[in-house]
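Something for you to look into today, if you have time. I want to see for myself how the chain folds. Leave the record below and I will have a look.
***
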Amino acid sequence: MEKTSSTETYQHQEIAHTVPGMAVPSQWAEKGSQIYIEGAGSKLWAIDGKEYLDATSCGLTNNIGYGNKELAETAKEQMIKLYHVPNFGGRVGLPYIALSKKLAEISPMDRFLVENSGSEVVDAAFKVARLYWREKGLDKYKIISLERAYHGVTFGALSTMGVPMFKCPGFEPLVPGFSAIPSPYCYLCPLGKTYPGCDIDCAQALEEAIEKEGEDSVAAFIGEPVQGGGGCIVPPPEYWPKVREICTKHNVLLIIDEVITGFGRTGKFWGHEHWGIKPDLMTMAKGLACGYVPISALGMTEEIYKGITQSDNPFLHIHTFGGHSVACAVALKNLEIMERENLTERAAKMGAYYQERMAEIKDKSPYVGDARGIGMWGRLQLVADKRTKECFDPEKQVGFQLVGRILSEKQILVGSFGNDIVMAGPPLTCTKEEIDAVVDAFEWALAGIEP
């Protein structure tokens, strides 16, 4: 692909008229962002003509790869036929109904509220949890989450934020009624324990928190099957069954956030399937339409739905573009493609190879304390000393330096959550050669670390 002659013009326009996301304004103002103009499969092409391998799947979203013409044609057809009717006041588009029916067939949930983003459905889940208990005459409103949680950036979701790099004191005060317990982070256990001789005390911490807050005031516990923003934290096998048991025992709803882990990313269609549990509420987004259109959904059991509607009052929660007909039609076609191409099964097979390659790095590099992941998603835990698990000096910015070097030298997009974690989650359609390129790039960058 040839370099676009107007590169500098577009960069000037970006700096002059846009608001940078997750960038240091002073640094961004000097040269702007990398601008991409085309994509196909796992590849992206920048405005300067360079080709990049996107090992982040467009933010762990693009499971089926870039440039899918079937999804584009589906969007075009639905736009011409009927682009949208707002889902409130007794109106709904046909694609919303069809998508909800399909989701009920492939998930443990019965009913679905379709929105635009993961943050929105997380907030909706909190509202439903509170309404459910209040319709029963109970003032259960508190939400418990995990300390390394990332569930979004709307104010409800932000009130569960546990990832330091995403916390911003300038947004405070946040929503009251939220608290957090330690994450099931075995490598750097926040409780100072060692698995398996720990009695899964990180799960027991939930029961202690419920008892501390008062069972009669706790509405729900929310968690991702595998924590994303916290650094691809895969919990031990006993964790989620124990959490489910505690929630049931204390009449606390279990909200499972499948925004990242849903739709095949982990090698199973839903992340929670690895632990054999059933949630009461379930959020989903990224892989639902693989980022081709903005869409998310909140799934709930029939019991929850009957609970929030038992007084026969309207469910006073609306978004103008919620249940958008084009988005629902594209999502439905995306699910069809995923089934037809057996992408979940592919993710399990290719994911096993990916995890093997990532584990090799741990043995080779003196600066990788842990290499862990699940399916087509993995991370490296960077340490200055493997024996003591001592972290690098934050001033060195080692994690971000590795990401920058790989991007500039190898033209591969990988991610970093903080200074000590780097990770990648390629599209489920990626090839073995592309996986090798990603892992080899990690190994190359690690060899250049100066302690």
Q: What stands out?
A: The domain at 69-340 is CATH 3.40.640.10 (Aspartate Aminotransferase; domain 2). The longest strand covers residues 218-223. The first helix runs from residue 7 to 17.
